[in-house]
What does this fold into?
Amino acid sequence: MFLKCFPKVSQKLVDMKPISYLCNNHSPTLFFMATSFGFQLATSPNKKGLYPVVLRITQDRKQKKVRTSLEVKKADWNQRAKNYKHFRSSCPEYAKMNDELRNVIDTYEKKYRSLAKTGRASAQIIVSEIQEGEVDHSFLKYAKERTQDLYDTGSIRNWKK
It folds into this structure.
Protein backbone atom coordinates (compact mmCIF):
# COMPACT_ATOMS: atom_id res chain seq x y z
CA MET A 1 0.00 0.00 0.00
CA PHE A 2 2.73 2.45 1.03
CA LEU A 3 4.84 1.66 -2.03
CA LYS A 4 1.93 2.24 -4.41
CA CYS A 5 1.26 5.69 -2.94
CA PHE A 6 4.88 6.79 -3.17
CA PRO A 7 6.49 5.40 -6.36
CA LYS A 8 9.70 7.46 -5.99
CA VAL A 9 10.31 6.02 -2.54
CA SER A 10 9.67 2.49 -3.75
CA GLN A 11 12.39 2.83 -6.39
CA LYS A 12 14.93 3.83 -3.73
CA LEU A 13 13.99 0.88 -1.53
CA VAL A 14 14.91 -1.70 -4.19
CA ASP A 15 18.57 -1.94 -3.16
CA MET A 16 17.96 -1.77 0.57
CA LYS A 17 18.10 -4.67 2.99
CA PRO A 18 15.01 -5.29 5.14
CA ILE A 19 15.50 -5.62 8.88
CA SER A 20 12.72 -6.70 11.21
CA TYR A 21 12.30 -4.57 14.29
CA LEU A 22 9.79 -4.76 17.12
CA CYS A 23 8.04 -1.44 17.46
CA ASN A 24 6.59 -0.86 20.97
CA ASN A 25 6.94 -4.62 21.60
CA HIS A 26 3.72 -5.27 19.65
CA SER A 27 4.25 -5.96 15.97
CA PRO A 28 7.33 -6.44 13.82
CA THR A 29 8.08 -3.59 11.46
CA LEU A 30 10.46 -3.69 8.51
CA PHE A 31 13.13 -1.04 8.30
CA PHE A 32 15.41 -0.84 5.30
CA MET A 33 19.11 -0.30 5.83
CA ALA A 34 20.89 1.04 2.78
CA THR A 35 24.39 0.16 1.75
CA SER A 36 26.43 3.07 0.46
CA PHE A 37 29.79 3.21 -1.27
CA GLY A 38 32.22 6.11 -1.36
CA PHE A 39 35.88 7.05 -1.56
CA GLN A 40 38.10 8.87 0.89
CA LEU A 41 41.78 9.30 1.58
CA ALA A 42 43.63 7.30 4.19
CA THR A 43 44.37 9.23 7.36
CA SER A 44 48.15 9.17 6.96
CA PRO A 45 50.47 9.33 3.94
CA ASN A 46 52.75 6.49 2.86
CA LYS A 47 56.55 6.71 2.59
CA LYS A 48 56.29 8.55 -0.74
CA GLY A 49 54.16 11.27 0.85
CA LEU A 50 51.06 10.21 -1.10
CA TYR A 51 47.72 9.33 0.45
CA PRO A 52 46.19 5.97 -0.52
CA VAL A 53 42.60 6.09 -1.79
CA VAL A 54 40.23 3.99 0.32
CA LEU A 55 36.82 2.61 -0.66
CA ARG A 56 34.34 3.01 2.20
CA ILE A 57 31.36 0.65 2.41
CA THR A 58 28.76 1.73 4.96
CA GLN A 59 26.00 -0.64 6.01
CA ASP A 60 23.86 -0.37 9.12
CA ARG A 61 26.02 2.59 10.22
CA LYS A 62 29.11 0.37 10.28
CA GLN A 63 31.99 1.12 7.97
CA LYS A 64 34.32 -1.24 6.18
CA LYS A 65 37.31 0.33 4.43
CA VAL A 66 39.19 -1.27 1.57
CA ARG A 67 42.44 0.13 0.25
CA THR A 68 42.68 0.59 -3.52
CA SER A 69 45.85 0.67 -5.60
CA LEU A 70 45.52 4.43 -6.21
CA GLU A 71 47.58 7.08 -4.42
CA VAL A 72 47.35 10.87 -4.64
CA LYS A 73 48.67 14.09 -3.13
CA LYS A 74 46.18 15.62 -0.74
CA ALA A 75 46.03 18.81 -2.85
CA ASP A 76 44.94 16.81 -5.94
CA TRP A 77 41.95 15.17 -4.18
CA ASN A 78 38.43 16.60 -4.14
CA GLN A 79 36.34 14.86 -1.46
CA ARG A 80 33.09 16.62 -2.44
CA ALA A 81 33.21 15.60 -6.11
CA LYS A 82 30.20 14.12 -7.86
CA ASN A 83 30.11 11.02 -10.10
CA TYR A 84 33.34 9.64 -8.62
CA LYS A 85 35.57 12.28 -10.22
CA HIS A 86 37.64 12.96 -7.12
CA PHE A 87 40.99 13.51 -8.85
CA ARG A 88 41.51 17.15 -9.80
CA SER A 89 42.81 18.16 -13.21
CA SER A 90 46.07 19.27 -11.55
CA CYS A 91 46.84 15.58 -10.98
CA PRO A 92 48.72 13.88 -13.84
CA GLU A 93 46.53 11.30 -15.62
CA TYR A 94 43.47 12.43 -13.67
CA ALA A 95 41.00 11.12 -16.28
CA LYS A 96 42.52 7.64 -16.17
CA MET A 97 42.48 7.62 -12.37
CA ASN A 98 38.85 8.77 -12.24
CA ASP A 99 37.96 5.94 -14.63
CA GLU A 100 39.76 3.54 -12.30
CA LEU A 101 37.62 4.81 -9.39
CA ARG A 102 34.50 4.19 -11.46
CA ASN A 103 35.67 0.63 -12.27
CA VAL A 104 36.33 -0.12 -8.59
CA ILE A 105 32.92 1.14 -7.50
CA ASP A 106 31.18 -0.75 -10.32
CA THR A 107 32.87 -4.00 -9.27
CA TYR A 108 31.78 -3.66 -5.65
CA GLU A 109 28.23 -2.55 -6.55
CA LYS A 110 27.77 -5.51 -8.91
CA LYS A 111 28.93 -7.91 -6.22
CA TYR A 112 26.58 -6.21 -3.73
CA ARG A 113 23.59 -6.61 -6.07
CA SER A 114 24.33 -10.28 -6.70
CA LEU A 115 24.68 -10.98 -2.97
CA ALA A 116 21.56 -8.93 -2.16
CA LYS A 117 19.49 -11.26 -4.31
CA THR A 118 20.53 -14.17 -2.09
CA GLY A 119 20.16 -12.13 1.10
CA ARG A 120 23.87 -12.32 2.05
CA ALA A 121 24.88 -8.75 1.27
CA SER A 122 27.10 -7.63 4.13
CA ALA A 123 30.16 -5.45 3.76
CA GLN A 124 32.43 -8.18 5.10
CA ILE A 125 31.16 -10.78 2.60
CA ILE A 126 31.37 -8.34 -0.33
CA VAL A 127 35.01 -7.52 0.41
CA SER A 128 36.05 -11.09 1.14
CA GLU A 129 34.50 -12.49 -2.05
CA ILE A 130 36.07 -9.85 -4.28
CA GLN A 131 39.51 -10.15 -2.68
CA GLU A 132 39.34 -13.95 -2.58
CA GLY A 133 38.65 -14.09 -6.30
CA GLU A 134 41.58 -11.79 -7.10
CA VAL A 135 44.12 -13.66 -4.99
CA ASP A 136 43.21 -17.20 -6.03
CA HIS A 137 43.41 -16.63 -9.78
CA SER A 138 46.59 -14.57 -9.77
CA PHE A 139 48.40 -16.91 -7.38
CA LEU A 140 47.52 -20.02 -9.38
CA LYS A 141 48.69 -18.34 -12.57
CA TYR A 142 51.93 -17.29 -10.87
CA ALA A 143 52.52 -20.77 -9.42
CA LYS A 144 52.04 -22.47 -12.80
CA GLU A 145 54.37 -20.02 -14.54
CA ARG A 146 56.98 -20.34 -11.82
CA THR A 147 57.02 -24.15 -11.88
CA GLN A 148 57.27 -24.08 -15.67
CA ASP A 149 60.22 -21.65 -15.46
CA LEU A 150 61.97 -23.91 -12.95
CA TYR A 151 61.47 -26.91 -15.21
CA ASP A 152 62.64 -25.04 -18.32
CA THR A 153 65.84 -23.79 -16.65
CA GLY A 154 66.75 -27.29 -15.51
CA SER A 155 66.18 -26.77 -11.80
CA ILE A 156 64.56 -30.15 -11.44
CA ARG A 157 65.58 -30.29 -7.80
CA ASN A 158 63.17 -27.39 -7.02
CA TRP A 159 60.49 -28.46 -9.52
CA LYS A 160 57.67 -30.69 -8.38
CA LYS A 161 55.10 -32.39 -10.54
Summary: The longest helix spans residues 123-152.
